[in-house]
Design a protein that fits this description.
alpha/beta, Aspartate Aminotransferase, domain 1, Aspartate Aminotransferase, domain 2, two-stranded parallel sheet, 13 strands, globular, binds pyridoxal-5'-phosphate
Amino acid sequence: MFQQVEQAPPDAILGLNEAFQRDPATDKINLTVGVFKDASGKTPVLNCVKEAERRLVQSEATKSYLGIDGMPKFDELARNLLFGEEHEIVTSGRCATLQTPGGTGALRVAADLVKKVSANVKIWCSDPTWPNHPSVFRAAGMESVTYPYFDPATNSVKIDEMLNAVRSMPSGDVICLHACCHNPTGADPSPEQWKQIADAVYEQGLIPLIDFAYQGFGDGLQEDAAGLHEFCRPGCELIVASSYSKNFGLYRERIGALSIVATDEDAAQRVLSQAKICVRTNYSNPPAHGAGIVATILEDADLRAAWESELTEMRDRINSMRRQFSEMMSAKCPQRDFSYLAEGRGMFSFSGLTAEQVDLLREKHSVYIVRNGRINVAGMTDDNIEQLCDRIASVL
Ligand SMILES: Cc1ncc(COP(=O)(O)O)c(C=O)c1O
């Protein structure tokens, strides 16, 4: 069986990270992987997480299985964080939430569910998008296609082209949207553009699948949900994949949630019963630890306040690095406009570097950037930013 198996290509981003680890240079800089780093270049465990874990160790009474849809308290808190506990979508009971292994798990269960209940629909992803989106959707048997999104000439959303594309998508298809901090471009729609997108999506009879991997990394927990809330309309159907990898720093614990909004409670329960079959035949039921941490923090007023303040610190650092990067690049290359670096949101930005320039930076200067030019600004520190800007300026 295995003798004839071909070598698969390495993951584009994780492969580069491995090359970075092997590079003996002492002044190497890694802007590849999508994890937050603090001012000392570390990906820390949040203090509120450590405290929640201490409490969990003391109170945990069993390691028996969770339900197929996870911990009910976690599901409720995850839903409230998205919509607000007073929202009609929550109070009506027309939203079913399942705890999933990370945001990726939520996306995969969503795709399995859509395939199960509506076999022939396509899923539309932004051009460009997180490379794992089409891979996950195709692994579930869905056809994944793209809509225009990012204009490299203006470093912003091509809203007119995007809306025209939405208006020609077949009714019933699914459109995947990044709620905030678009990965890989950092370019999000404005509030007015979100309204136009939601109008067009619903007029066309599409189902929005909103990928919410960075809530709190852009402008704030509530502010970042503004795009999602444009889609929360009476009688709407919508799917949300949330991740707590970034905003709780729980990457390796694999904790996320899938929320499915149906037109009424009865439909939501029926859809939940189908989603549970997708989970049962895949990983059976989710791991407990990450959900225990998130629920402990969100449930306790003090821990929640501590979390929000640590999240604000992470966000402030990202936005401060964006501003410094933009100012420094403008000073070093005055003939180019780098204002978009400061205007974008989240950890990622398109640098405008070509694949050849990216290769040169890696080979000559030990600066590691994804070949499409995506930069993780959280990889910058006060100590390396000047050197980094000099090296980028030298290849531009
Ligand atoms: C846009 C986007 N969606 C989903 C995910 C998945 O996150 P998780 O690690 O929780 O599976 C990521 C992670 O990088 C992401 O960037």
